[in-house]
Amino acid sequence: MTTYRTAANRYASFRDEVFASSGSQVAEPSPIDIPEMELQAMWFGGEFGRHFSGTRGETIEIVQFGHWNHSAGPDFTEVAVRIDGQLHSGSLEIDLSLHSWESHGHGANTHFDDVVLHVFLNHDHDGGDFYTRTSQHQEITQLRIDPAWLHHAKARDLAEAFPGRCLTPLQQLSDTAAETLIESAAQYRLERKSRRLSAMADATSADQMMYQAIAEALGYRKNKYAMSIMAQRNPIKSMLLLPSTAREAHWYGTAGWMQTEVHDASLSEETSTYLKDLWQHWWKIRPEIEAKDERRAIKWHLAGTRPVNHPQRRLGALAALVDSWNAASAIWKNPTADITKHWTVLLESLQHDHWQHHYTLHSKRAAKAMRLIGQDRQRDILGNVLFPYCLADHPELWAAFLSLPAVDGNEKLRRAQLRLFGTKKHPTIKRYYQQQALLQIYDDFCLEDTSECAECPFPEQLCQWQ
Fold it and tell me: Which of 2, 275, 323, 448 has its CA 20 to 30 A from that of 235?
């Protein structure tokens, strides 16, 4: 068994050498087109950290991330930013493109005059400087988010489903070499997740980071950032001060599921009663929480979602977990080698009177009670959240991570399996870390290669791993 961190460094070096040997560098991400609210969620969650350099070389520190604006105007208000040592208070605007400042009319809008920092992603370089200005023609400091930081968020098509050229050289690796490659790739992937979670915890708090990261995991791929935004707009510190029903009123109201038409469409008496209980809290807080600008409303992706995984039900699972927050936080704050057992026991014990018997706010009561968080999702939260965070300070947990069982595969994992090992299911892929390793190799080489395997340098360089 490889030691924690050493193996990740070896894989990183190998990865760089593979691309260097081909006469090219690891591909820089092209301009990224992601929903602007997702970019804002990543910023507000602290994924990019607090310390930056401006486009003119200014030293920038985010002292206070402020409040996410629910109305028209700048994206974030009551922000505190230290620029070249001087503290500035005001608003902050985030755009996908630098030139969006003018194309959206911000430069002539007096509501944007208190913006102290303009954050953007894509430069749209036209050969000259772009001047971010207020309506009074005062210059606003610019900060560009490095597109490389968003590489993991870039939506990329899956590679064609056929066995790759690396199939033969992978089969020719000794068992020892193959296992160290798998462990190293898995560790490299886990280290990247660990750095993201650490940055989020440093920018907010460990509790807020874990609350947000678990909410993301419960949202699955389609609703990851919708759940993240919901968690950001309802911080865990504030939520823990509320009784359960009031807490859920905040969540379902922020999510946009407290409208009259939702009540009218409910098909069970239990759901009507449940919504009425939430409404007793919601009508009091609605003016300060409900998005007043449609562009600020959370966007949910429901097509193709299995009823048991509907985000309305996922919020119910989160509610049950937050009800047991002290017990949950003790697991990651004082982790032991039995972390998998403790986490599983806790999640299996979660209960919610309504959501154990309903799929959505529109569904009838189910015939029998359902588990709030399934076995695969329990393992995914362990593998994607708890272990990456805990291993930063507890490397002795690496052995426990290696023992985590595999989850049911998805389309990406099946394609990675096919590319690397052919049509037959590889007999050794029985653990979660092995699945993560396949995904990392697939991301690094199959999805970065534009020649459909013909010119990928990975197969020829596999001999280096010997």
Answer: 275
CA 204 vs CA 117, 284, 304, 458: distances in Å:
19, 28, 34, 39
Domain spans in the chain, listed from the N-terminal domain onward: 1-30+157-466, 36-153
Q: What is the pLDDT of residue 395?
A: 94
Strands (E), 20-85: 51-53, 59-64, 67-68, 76-83
Number of H helices, E strands in the chain: 20, 7
CA atoms in the 13 A half-sphere facing the CB of 395: 9
pLDDT at 420: 85
Query: Are the C-beta atoms of residues 106 and 46 closer than 8 Å to each other?
Result: no
Give me the pLDDT at residue 457, please: 86
- What's the Cα-to-Cα distance from 279 to each of 263, 275, 291, rounded to whole Å? 10, 6, 17
Helix/strand/coil for 335: coil
Cα gap 60→83, rounded to integer Å: 5
Burial (CB count within 10 angstroms: exposed 0-12, middle 13-18, buried 19+), residue 291:
middle
Low-confidence stretches of the chain (pLDDT < 50) are 24-29, 155
Q: What is the pLDDT of residue 29?
A: 47
Distance CA 167, CA 165 (A): 5
| Model pTM score | 0.89
8 A C-beta contact, residue 250 and residue 237: no
Task: Tell me the angle at which helices 206-218 and 224-233 cross, rounded to the nearest 10 degrees.
Answer: 140
